[in-house]
Amino acid sequence: MSAAAAKRAPGVTSSNPVLLLATGLNVPDDLLYMPADGTVLVGEHGNGHIARVGGPSRVARLRQVVPEAEGIAQIGSTVYIADQLHARVVALTGTGVRTVLQLQPVPSGENLDGIAATSTQLIVPDSPHGTVLFVDAAGHVTARYGGFSRPAGVWVEPGGRYLIADENAAAVFELRSNGSVTKLAGNLPGADDAARAPDGHVLAILPGLGTLRDVTTGHDVASGLRNPQGLGFDGAQNVLVTESDAGRLELIVKTFALQVPAPAVRLVPGQGVCLGILRARGFAGRLTIESVSGATVATQPSAAASFEVVPAPCAQATCTVSVVVGSPSGHQFADFTYRD
């Protein structure tokens, strides 16, 4: 039986397991988890590519190029990217990009940063001008809120509330749709991104300190990060974070994660494959297989560290197995390729 091995992130300190999802990325910055397939889009600020991490190919690049790719958001099936170099927001099209919003650039080139979206509109911090813009899908500014120092990241919450990470104010604010602003936490030097975890705690990325901080408790969730930038959550409430200077995307495991074998693993017909289960300390939620394609299930997920599937005979150069595992915290995707 072929087994999966966990790849731990070197140099990162955390009370939770930290898994390396991708390396060799070109100055990875902001990210967006795609709930439909469990992949993660990562903007590569260094060369303008958008990496798709996860799925059978592990790491692939979209055909579109956005110089100095920063924030990533989605409305419906359309993905939007913040182009820091040109101070604009573009929508990805089938053949390239389309400018949706053009802002006034500043000489330093430090233009807009992180963006987010509701189901109908974009929330765009115009970072150098200290304002947060609400923009519809056609690019029309429907609301504008000022008074910030350098808003660098935004997180959408229920009920018309938004977390704003203000880099120069070293703080995280809560902006309401009526324009009121509340300071949630300060003394957060260089706060680049903020997000509220499913447990209600607010997390903030502090690039200069190399930490991911729980500002609700004041404790660091992870330290030793090399210029962390992007922040988000996967489908099982684990924390996604990029290390810009290390070229990595990592997963801080708060619930459970799945591990798969190396791509194009060589099997003999009928040979089983063990998919690893990595649980965070204290997580005992029941795991169930929600769907599987390209294989049959030999052993179900349990309290053990793995479960087994048996891939179908493969008559091609490579074949693919896809598994979705559910839990009380959400679900995880596992995809791998193999050959007989």
List the helices and strands and how they pair.
Layout: E1 18-22, E2 28-34, E3 39-44, E4 49-53, E5 59-65, E6 69-75, E7 78-83, E8 88-92, E9 97-102, E10 116-117, E11 121-126, E12 131-136, E13 141-145, E14 151-157, E15 161-166, E16 171-176, E17 181-185, E18 193-196, E19 202-206, E20 211-214, E21 219-222, E22 228-233, E23 239-243, E24 248-252, E25 256-259, E26 265-266, E27 273-279, E28 288-293, E29 295-299, E30 306-311, E31 319-327, E32 330-339
Parallel strand pairs: 26-32
Antiparallel strand pairs: 1-24, 2-3, 3-4, 4-5, 6-7, 7-8, 8-9, 10-11, 11-12, 12-13, 14-15, 15-16, 16-17, 18-19, 19-20, 20-21, 22-23, 23-24, 25-27, 27-30, 28-31, 29-30, 31-32
Describe the structure.
It contains no helices and 32 strands. A four-stranded antiparallel sheet has the order 1-24-23-22, with no helix packed on it. A four-stranded antiparallel sheet has the order 2-3-4-5, with no helix packed on it. Strands 6-7-8-9 form a four-stranded antiparallel sheet, with no helix packed on it. It folds into two domains: 18-252, Neuraminidase; 256-339, Immunoglobulin-like (Sandwich), CATH 2.60.40. It starts with 17 loop residues before the first strand and ends with a strand. The protein has 340 residues and is an all-beta fold. It has strands at 18-22, 28-34, 39-44, 49-53, 59-65, 69-75, 78-83, 88-92, 97-102, 116-117, 121-126, 131-136, 141-145, 151-157, 161-166, 171-176, 181-185, 193-196, 202-206, 211-214, 219-222, 228-233, 239-243, 248-252, 256-259, 265-266, 273-279, 288-293, 295-299, 306-311, 319-327, 330-339.
